[in-house]
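BUG: 3D viewer hangs when loading the predicted structure for this chain

Environment: internal workstation, default settings.
Expected: structure renders.
Actual: progress bar stalls at 90%.

Input used:
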Amino acid sequence: MPIYDSLKQSLADLQSQSLLRQRRIVDSPCGPEIEIGGRRLLAFASNDYLGLAGKPALATAAQKAAKRWGAGAGASHLVSGHYSAHDALEKRLAEFVGLPAAISFSTGYMANIAVMPALLSRNDAIFADRVNHASLVDGALLARAELHRYPHGDLKALEGALIASGSRRKLIVSDTVFSMDGDVAPLAGLLELAERFDAWLLLDDAHGFGVLGPQGRGALAEAGLQSERIIYMGTLGKAAGVAGAFVAGSQDLVDWLVNTARAYIFTTAAPPMLAETLLAAVDLIEQADTQRAYLQKLIAAFRHGMQGTRWTLPDSRTAIQPVIVGDNAEVLALARALDDAGFWVPAIRPPTVPAGSARLRVSLTAAHTLKQVQALTAALQTLSAAA
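Structure tokens produced before the viewer hung:
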């Protein structure tokens, strides 16, 4: 079967380039210490930034919600799958991020591929940061609008593209916290351009929601920005510790998405038990100022402990702390050496990041201890000196 021979060759090509990916099976709850294949590893791999995923309070909330709602929703939101728990969660999330209304989705990926095709078409234009998350790239492609990808964080280049565009409708789209670099987008500048050129501004706050801003209300709250043209997407499987996502904005925007967003209309709703569990998670986020302050101390400790190593650390003030290695084979070897020493730090390679910028993606959480972070930096210092 030549078609399968071609597939096998493609897999072999990935292997030869040190790009083949494999899943690892975790046998313990999400947390700083995990079990894989009978070994205990100190993990710096999850996006559970506040340490809520394994928190007993959320497990108790989920048990209570399962008894109340059962396991599934049974249908899409527009058929019979929109429960009072979903409605309460959407109202709570909108209030929490300071926007009029919200609509919930099963995943952040679904939310991002839903919004752009619902708002734009072939005669319109999308202006996207070049290192946006893959879901934002795919959402832009599904919209079939003219796509302009401006250099990362380059407001001048974005302005030039907007000036040159004759499209009837425009949308600027960006992560707030970039998932592989950890830096924060120039949000005020993006909004100023959106206002000046009458464009929508879609912001993916997957890695900011729950972590940034007063009471964890996200990157918009931290920046003090408000505008009816902002479309805000937040995920609920990272700092919130559960699963799902939401899009918040004007009531008209949400009503339009309910009626036209295909990824919302044509999928079974997330279980109402998850929605009720997420209500408890939002309360925990709101009360987590101590955890957020502690996380900042861990970030500072990690960056201090990495001084003098042979690798580059981008300018990140967030829980995402990349260690840029460059070569694919070298970053895999470094990740294996850390694994041998009892640490799980994922090696990130193209196409997730640009060619030549393979990296370790160190993800810190409020569940880590200072000693654990110091143990990781000590291991990296040793490996740097031995290279």
